Structures are given as C-alpha cells and as structure tokens.
Amino acid sequence: MNTRHQLTRRHTTAPATMTVGRLYRNALAGQWRGGLVLLACSVLEGLPAFFSGRLVELAVNSGFAAGKPGVGLGWLGVFGLAALAGAFGSRLVWRQLGKVVEPLRDALVTAVVRGVLHDPAPPRGGPDARGVARITQHVEVVRDATGGLLVQARGMIVTTAAAIAGLVSVAGPLTVPVVVPVVLALAGFAALLPSLARRQRALTLADEGTAAATGSIFAGMRDVVACGAEPVAALTADHAVDRQAEAAVRVARSAALRSVLVALGGFVPLVLTLALAPSMVARGELTAGAALGALVYLATTLQPALRGLAATASTVVLRLLVALRRLAETTAPPERRLATESPAGLGLVVRDLTFRWGAAPEPVVRGLNLDLRPGEHLAVVGPSGIGKSTLAGLLTGLLEPQHGEVRLGGVRASELADRPRHLVLVPQQAYLFAGTVRENLSLFHPEASDRRLAAAAEAVGAAPLLARLGGLDAELGPGAEGLSAGEAQLLALARAYAAPAGVVVLDEATSTLDPAAEVHAERAFAARGGTLIVIAHRLSSAVRAHRVLLMDGQETLLGRHDELLATAPRYAEMMRAWLPERSRLEAS
C-alpha cells in the first residue's frame, strides 16, 4: 500500500528572468563612477584633437609667417604640451578600464552558467561544448568589445567631434565640403550594418557548431578509435570547419566593402580641401595658417579617427551585438516555480515518467511508475546507454520530463528548495574543485563539523586517502589534479555521505573502484539511513539491493532480485553473463 504525503504548499512565482541586454546595461550602469572618470579622461584625451589645427594656425600666422620663429616654436611647444596631456588622459583610460569591464564579464559568466544548468535538453553523455563556447568565445567577445568601445570608439568619437569643432573655428568656409562626404559615407555604412550583422551571426553559429562537433569527437576519442570511425569523425569535423570558413569569407567580403566606403569618406574631404584651399587663400577667405590648420585636422586627426571609428563599429560593435543576441537566446533559464516548504518525508513517488532527448522519436524513459519507501535500497540495471543516467537526472530534478512527474515528500523534485539538504546525486565523473579537502567535502553541508567530514571519509573508505593528502586542510588542484579517478570518486562519495540529504542517488559513482571498495561504499550508504538508489556499474549491486529496476529498452521491470531471476529472462541472462566475471574477480 502506497502512502502519499499530503502537503499544503505555497508557491511564489520567480521574478521574470533578466534579459541579457538588461543585464549588460545594468552591469555597466553599476560602474558609473568609473564611467565618470572615463568621461573626464575623454575631455583630457581630446585636447590635442581640438587645439592641433588652431595651434598650427597660430604658429604660422603669428610666428613663422610674421617673421617671429620664436613665437611659432612657442605655439608648437604648446601643441606638444597638449599632446602630452592627451597621452596622460589615454593612460588614465586604460587604468580605469578593468574596473568597468571585469564586473560585466563576471555577470555574463554567471548568466551563462545559470542557463546551462537550467537547460531543458542538455547534451547527452558528454560535456556541453556549446556552453563552453559561450563562455570562452561569446562572453569574451562582449568583454573585449566593451573594452574596445570604451577605449577606441569613445576616443574616436571624442577625437572626431573635437576635430570638426576645431575645423569650424579655424576654417569655417571648408565645413560643407568636409562634412557632407563624411555624413554620406557614414550613412552608407549604416545601411550595410544589417547585412553585416546577419553574416556575423552566421559566423558565430558556425563557431558554435565547430566547437560542438570537435568537442563530441574529442570526448569520445577512445570509442572513435576502438570502432575504427576515424574517417567519419574527420569528415564531421571537416564539414564543420568548412561551414565556419565559408561564413568567415562572407564576413570578410562585407568588411572589405565597408573599408572601401569608409576610406572614400575620409579621403574625399582631404582632396576637396586641397583643391579649394588655394583659391580661398588667394581670395582672402582663408589665411595660409588656417588652410594648413585645416589640413592638419583632416590628415592627422579626422581621417584616421573616421577610419578607426568605422572599423570599430563594423567589427567590435557588430560582434558585440551578435554575441549579446546569441547569449540572450541561450542563457535565459525558464521561469520556475519554487517550493517554499521542505518535503514532508522521504517517500519518492514517480508517476507516468516519460523523457526523450531532443527530437529523438523514441523516449529513453517511457511511462515509468515507481514508489520508494523511506529507507529503501533500489538498484537500477540495464545495458550501457539504455537511459539509466537519464533516469538519475530525472529522479534528482536535474532533467525536466516531457510527461509525468517525480515527487519527494509531495514536492516536485525539480522544485525542491535547498535541494542538497534533501536529495543528492553522485555522478560517474566525480567533480572536485580547486580548494581544500574540507571545502570539497562540505559542499552540500557547509556547516558540517570536521568530525562529521572525517567520519564520512572513514565510512566510505576514504580515510587512508585523506591521511595521505594531509587531512582536511590539504589543497586540491583544479579538476582533481594529482588524484586518480578512483580517489576522486572516494572524495565525491564522502561528500555525499556527509550531506544531510535523506535520498542519495549513486550514478555509477563507484565505477573506477575495485569490487571490494565498491561493496564497502555501497554498504556504508545502505547503513547510513535514508533512501539509496544505485545506478549499477556491476550487477553485484543488484544482489545487495532491496529491489531491482531493470531497464532494457523494451520494458521496465521492478522486483526483488530472486523474483526477477525467476520471472525475467533478460535479467537472468544478464546475471548468467556476469557470473564468470564475478568468479574471476573473487579469485583475484
């Protein structure tokens, strides 16, 4: 008879997920003090651009042309001081850049990781290469592009504006011949931006595709070699690289057209000035110094600034917009309804559970019903790749089923508040992070005492390892550096044992341990109390369990070990195939 726990729950709707664009704007707005400093530095940096032509005019008209070379040299000296002030302003910009950009990067990485963790259809059986690409490529694009805008585009805009203002003050009659070609060039460039954005986005998607293809190949390299599938893997990688190369060529062609357009916008005003200035000087509309000052503005300030501004806008801004759009498409987690109360008991109830990966026609788990009483020990067995690890993800709420539900004490597993206090999963690939052994073992129970952590290590058989490492204060490197796979699994088991969770799921978590160590660890969890679910790596786990769940792709059977031996031919066949291996292991 199944006991169902009735639980009156209050739900709160999680606030709407902040969009990546809003996150980007808020992260920048939060650094307003640094922005004010950048603005002040911009004014200082723009001094040479504004005064360059005027100072050259004064040096010519009041100095060299008037037969006073000392005065002319003095004005050129002032020009040099202005240039030094501008260089000092640029130096201050670089010093402030990190204070503005790095918090933005941290916020975006957090958003990406959150989106990956809440992905309703994560990659099966391997790392999320696309998620890695978002962090290593898209987030870095946003970081670098933002830095480029704050340094280059900001400086170029200030320089352009200062140069035009200086030109108007020095040589007003040349304003129209200069400004009109610049405006037309910028308008044409703006008209090209939509097509540039589309091509840049296509390149971004091609980058992701290459990362996903090569990542899956590298993750399964041993199987690829074992099956002789190197040509197929190489062909898959070649196709991905070809698509990426084609997208890059299309972007390069658009960039070339953009460069020609912008070059004309910067070159035509210079040609018109050279053509018109002599006659204006002859008619008295311009002085020789004003004409020379105008050329200084155009040749040394306005033209380089326009080229740089257009180049920055067409590369940095485009990449920024495309990267933000791609992050917005992939990082926003779905709105979730979170339970505000803990589950009433440890009864695990599964009803009509169905799950399929992506667009696969056949579900991996179909219509599963299961009731686990508190304290029960269940072993899940079946051929490799049949969906046992998928079931572990469903039972722990890490995967959302297409149909049906999993409830722990009346609360949906995916909605558990403070999940590690109620339900813990230990996967086959043990995760250890850089830090002390204590920090790793207390991950699910931060307030656990040293005595509790040491007792957990002793219970699962990790005490000798703990002593060899140097105790709880020993430092671990990233990715369990320096530890074997079995040692990493022992520490992961100790971490789960120390957690307060009443339900523990071991997903082949002892696969790299020897049989004796596996038996020791499983018996420790069985004696720990609570509910234990073991995704079996060896069939000996089924013999030790209270009940066995057999998954073979066609039907799912549940019963005691002896019952399945008598009634399930597939289970009996698996056991007969395992007996020789058991005998060999016992003999060794």
Structure explained in plain terms:
By secondary structure, the protein is of the alpha/beta class. It is built from 18 helices and 14 strands. The strands form 4 sheets. Strands 8-11-12-5-13-14 form a 6-stranded mixed β-sheet, sandwiched between helices. Strands 4-3-6-7 form a 4-stranded antiparallel β-sheet, with helices on one face. Strands 1-2 form a two-stranded antiparallel sheet. Strand 6 and strand 7 form a beta hairpin. Helix 1 crosses helix 4, helix 3 packs antiparallel against helix 4 and helix 4 packs antiparallel against helix 5. The longest helix has about 55 residues. The N terminus is likely disordered.
Total strand count, please? Answer: 14
CA(first)-CA(last) distance = 44 Å
Helix content class: 55-70%
Poorly predicted runs are 1-17
Give the strand content.
5-15%
Number of helices: 18
Report on the biggest sheet: 6 strands, mixed
Oligomeric state of shown chains: single chain
Structural class: alpha/beta
Q: What's the alpha carbon Rg, rounded to whole Å?
A: 34 Å
Globular, elongated, flat, extended or rod-shaped: what is the shape?
A: elongated
Strands ordered across the widest β-sheet: 8-11-12-5-13-14
Averaging pLDDT over every residue, what do you get?
79
